[in-house]
């Protein structure tokens, strides 16, 4: 699935369809900032050949960044990073047994020499992965950089316009 008619700049992959409720937040942020992306399930354990093909061909297909979300053993981000020189952003997906701590530790504890940028567990991590991917794309794309700057200015404006934390009375 591709987010629009432009060639994708970011690949958003996940180990299972069940990861979509978290990873959709990365896609939503990319779409909000005008960054074309592609999404697909690529399992480190069930489809290792697909994983290697996807990662090895990512740069050739025009991707600049890969966001990889995974839960449990969470090998997907590290295995993808081992097969490409593109930046890989890992999103730990919350697991039932250990609430995502297992996923976080699996992703963040990469050996020296294979880098994976690891984000927070769950929705916040996916949202920030989308934002960080846009920032990386924005290094070479002034339109995306301007969209990130506008997003940040909007966040600032929202806080300054509503400094009172109490609910507004009707």
Automatic annotation (TrEMBL):
It comes from the Bacteria. Substrate binds at residues 16, 19, 46. Transmembrane segments: none annotated. It is an enzyme of class 5 (isomerase). One of its GO terms (biological process) is 'de novo' IMP biosynthetic process. InterPro entries: PurE_ClassI (IPR033747), PurE_dom (IPR000031), PurE_prokaryotes (IPR024694). Keywords: Isomerase, Purine biosynthesis. SMART domains: AIRC (SM01001). SUPFAM superfamilies: N5-CAIR mutase (phosphoribosylaminoimidazole carboxylase, PurE). Residues 8-159 form the PurE domain. Its EC number is 5.4.99.18. One of its GO terms (molecular function) is 5-(carboxyamino)imidazole ribonucleotide mutase activity. Pathway: Purine metabolism; IMP biosynthesis via de novo pathway; 5-amino-1-(5-phospho-D-ribosyl)imidazole-4-carboxylate from 5-amino-1-(5-phospho-D-ribosyl)imidazole (N5-CAIR route): step 2/2. The keyword Secreted does not apply. The keyword Isomerase applies. It catalyses: 5-carboxyamino-1-(5-phospho-D-ribosyl)imidazole + H(+) = 5-amino-1-(5-phospho-D-ribosyl)imidazole-4-carboxylate. HAMAP family: PurE_classI. Belongs to the AIR carboxylase family. Class I subfamily. Catalyzes the conversion of N5-carboxyaminoimidazole ribonucleotide (N5-CAIR) to 4-carboxy-5-aminoimidazole ribonucleotide (CAIR). This is N5-carboxyaminoimidazole ribonucleotide mutase. It comes from Halomonas daqiaonensis. The lineage of its organism: Bacteria, Pseudomonadati, Pseudomonadota, Gammaproteobacteria, Oceanospirillales.
